[in-house]
Amino acid sequence: MYGATKLLTTNVWRNFQQMFQECGFEVYTHREIVEVDAPERTKAERASDNQRLAVNELMERMRDVYWKIEENGVENQTNAFIGDLRSRLEPILCYVSMSVYKSL
Question: Is residue 30 over pLDDT 70?
Answer without folding.
Answer: no
